[in-house]
Amino acid sequence: MQQYVYDFEQGSKEMKTILGGKGANLAEMSSIGLPVPQGFTVSTAVNFKYFENNDALPEDVVKQIDDAVKRLEDKAGQKFNDPTNPLLVSVRSGAAISMPGMMDTVLNLGINQEVAESIAKNTGNYAFAYDNYRRFIQMYSDVVLEIPKSNFDKVLEEYQEEAGINTFKEFEKEKMLEIIKEFLEIVKVKTGEDFPTDARSQLLKAVEAVFRSWKNERAILYRKINAIPDDLGTAVNVQRMVFGNYDGTSGTGVLFSRNPSTGEDALFGEFLFNAQGEDVVAGIRTPEPIANLKNDHPELHKEIYDLAKSLEKHYKDVQDIEFTIERGKVYLLQTRNGKRTAKASIKIAMDLVKEGLIDEKTALLRIPANSVDALLHPDFAAESKASGTVLAKGLAASPGAAKGKVYFTAEDIVEANKRGEACILVRKETSPEDLAGMLNAKGILTSRGGMTSHAAVVARSMGKTCVAGCSDILVDEENKTLSNGTITLKEGDYISIDGSDGTVFAGELQFEEAKNSDELEILLDWSDKYSKTMVRANADTPVDAQVAIGFRADGIGLCRTEHMFFDKNRITSVREMILAENLEERKVALEKIRPFQEEDFYGILKTMGERPITVRLLDPPLHEFLPKTEQDIEDLVKVTGKNKEHIMTVSEGLHEFNPMLGHRGCRLAITYPEIYKMQTEALITAACKLKKEGVKTNPEIMIPLIAFNEELEMLRKLVKETADKIIKESGVELEYKIGTMIEIPRACLTADKVAMNADFFSFGTNDLTQMTMGFSRDDVNVFMGEYIDKKVFEVNPFVSIDQEGVGQLVKLAVDKAMSTGKEIKIGVCGEHGGDPASIHFLLSCGLQYVSCSPFRIPIAKIASAQYHIQNESK
Ligand code: PEP
Ligand code: MG
């Protein structure tokens, strides 16, 4: 018989796929002797059995649950429905990959009127007994019977308002019973049935509801955002209740063993005395920082600290822990590796290495390559902050700086984002329903909630700037305004928020330039130590090259020469060249461009020194250079002496319907060889000049958009003859390479032939993606969103390589090139060269280097180090 239900004693942390993260860790904590209330887990396998069985638990599963309940009753010495000693349980979701707050939870299950009365009698604590009962009715109704919690909240709020009190527990017994009666009445009216009283049927229904919640809207959205597969399913954990709401010596809290925002090694979290879990996140009572315990209850603080540290040592990582104190005794209800900001992930990994808990390789694998990006994001400039209008100060919930227009609902943010506006989501507090808004906002500001509130936790995991609990401002969601009493901002007004110190400013502040940090340096040290892959930069100017060197680029993998042509002072000469009607005219124009080119090449070669630099010869889609304005045409009239109408006619004649598939790249040079000739002369002249000045360089000339070996053969000959002539005339020795981009499917399919004329290949995966899919790079965004929504593919293939299709062509081309036995260097310079998933794939195909924009170099370095560490033993 297949096992579907596991007692905590039967599991371990390795069993996440079966028990979900929460279940596996509850099992692990039990087995290492930590104080965990007993319980069992219904496995993830049951989730889809439940859906397949027309949304009902199969009989064999029900039988195993019944048996597990019996075992739990024996261990706890308590029984379902037994008024003298009732067993109450919690029912919680827990998938293999944590999805905090996305699915449902029911506490105090097993309670009914009779049981509540006997708890009141046995404990002499009626407030506790009836508080549990009314909470259960609310939660069960919400989760299982789908009667929104607000129905009950409204009634409770009315009673509280009338009595002038804040919490249910402050009522007299009779009032409590009256409220509970009203709650039960709501259920009767809404469902036509009495509220269920039998613990077993409550349990089975609650387990089913948790399984159902796998498919609720917010869980689906969360999985989509976080690329969590839809077919994992959740497990359900059933656990004996311990009561943080018993009395003043009881309480509940959540904590991180280190600060998840900054990585600082200090307990970080919040707790509430006399409360149950939901109170900490609900924002009704303000939780206290965990540090306060240190002064008021030092032994309790020490006990919690020791437990947190022993969990950290056991798991060798920062833990995100839920605990409950029942009459002075601490219980652990959950632990998992804590989510953290990019900044914290780096500090924590480094500290754990220093503490000897993990080694450098493990540390590197712990840092999501993309997350170093956040280290490079700008803060607000100090002067701008100093002169900014401070609106208020809130909690620094997720670091970084963000600015934009204020919107008050997730829907408005999504709409504003579609209009291309940068925006900030402002709410009293966020809930999982706000996820789409949070995702589309630049930053999030809330007036309520603590550092572990929904807004704070979710923003941190998204790496999004967030100021939470900013109680100095009044948020009027109805009228769409926010105010600090003096200044009022309305929808669409600008605001700036600093998630690193919690300051909120009216208006737009200026960002500061991104800068390198010490941590980044260590990270780059480690990456360089464990990576065998060269990371080059896509850089077109000496300034770009300097930034790239700052990030320790191993060279330049793509210098797009057409970008040197866009300069205001040069563009007319370039247009003159493009519109030239014969060789003579073209040569005249090219001679005007030559000095610029030579100067540019000199600058960039000098900056890079001996590092290899791949200069790609001209590859402009023609339309980018055609004259657009009256002024453009007038400028041409001046330099060419031709009349306006004639220039317009020639220009119209060059119009292309598909410029991306038009007269660009090597095709230009097949028809006008003098263009590549001039560029080669300019580059090699600059290199020879530098050589004479004592600067060694390492130029590589790259010919773009090759589809036929014959194109490459012809142009290689032209480039080689031109370069050799210059070198000979200058009397210096200079080595250089000639290679090609592989960006047309035909070049992949015939890569063995193409390889015969190339010293190197660089995959232009932007064009290769465009041409393999037949998606115009310039027009695809019109339908890209729809394609991703409808799951034609999961991620934009221009961001992360399509491994199945485009990837196959890459692999084929590499294999074909290698099969020639010729020594050939192979890399990538499309955007995918800075995307971690693509890097892993491309390295697995046999690529030897990657090239990406300068600011993505750290990402590429970490990703390639991670690839080599993961594949070390292979
Ligand atoms: C490419 O096609 O991947 C590439 C790097 O060239 P470009 O983006 O300039 O076409
Ligand atoms: Mg290209």
Each distinct ligand: phosphoenolpyruvate, magnesium ion
Q: Which structural class do the helices and strands define?
A: alpha/beta
Q: How would you write the strand order of the largest sheet?
A: 11-21-20-13-14-15-16-12
Strand content: 15-25%
Specify the biggest β-sheet. Answer: 8 strands, mixed
End-to-end C-alpha gap: 38 Å
The total of helices stands at 35
Q: Which oligomerization state do the chains in this entry correspond to?
A: single chain
Which stretches are low in confidence, meaning pLDDT under 50 for 5 or more residues running?
A: none
Quick structural gist:
The protein is of the alpha/beta class and 874 residues long. The model has no long low-confidence stretch (mean pLDDT 92). The site of phosphoenolpyruvate (PEP) has 10 residues, from β23 and α31.
Structure overview:
It is a single chain. With 874 residues, this protein is of the alpha/beta class. Helix content is 46%, strand content 16%. Strand 17 (474-476) and strand 18 form a beta hairpin. It binds phosphoenolpyruvate (PEP) and magnesium ion (MG). Phosphoenolpyruvate binds at residues 558, 560, 619, 743, 764-767, 829-830.
Write the layout of secondary structure elements.
Elements: E1 5-7, H1 16-31, E2 39-42, H2 45-52, H3 59-76, E3 89-95, E4 105-109, H4 113-123, H5 126-143, H6 150-163, H7 173-191, H8 199-212, H9 217-225, E5 234-240, E6 251-256, E7 268-273, H10 277-282, E8 288-289, H11 291-296, H12 298-315, E9 319-326, E10 329-337, H13 342-354, H14 360-366, H15 372-376, H16 382-387, E11 389-393, E12 395-398, E13 401-407, H17 410-418, E14 423-427, H18 435-440, E15 443-446, H19 454-462, E16 465-468, E17 474-476, E18 481-483, E19 488-490, E20 494-498, E21 503-506, H20 518-530, E22 534-538, H21 542-550, E23 556-560, H22 568-579, H23 583-608, E24 612-616, H24 630-640, H25 644-653, H26 666-671, H27 673-692, E25 698-703, H28 709-730, E26 737-742, H29 745-749, H30 751-755, E27 760-763, H31 765-773, H32 781-789, H33 806-819, E28 825-828, H34 836-844, E29 849-852, H35 857-870
Parallel strand pairs: 13-14, 14-15, 15-16, 22-23, 22-29, 23-24, 24-25, 25-26, 26-27, 27-28, 28-29
Antiparallel strand pairs: 1-2, 2-5, 3-4, 3-5, 6-7, 6-9, 7-8, 9-10, 11-21, 12-16, 13-20, 17-18, 18-19, 20-21
The protein binds phosphoenolpyruvate and magnesium ion.
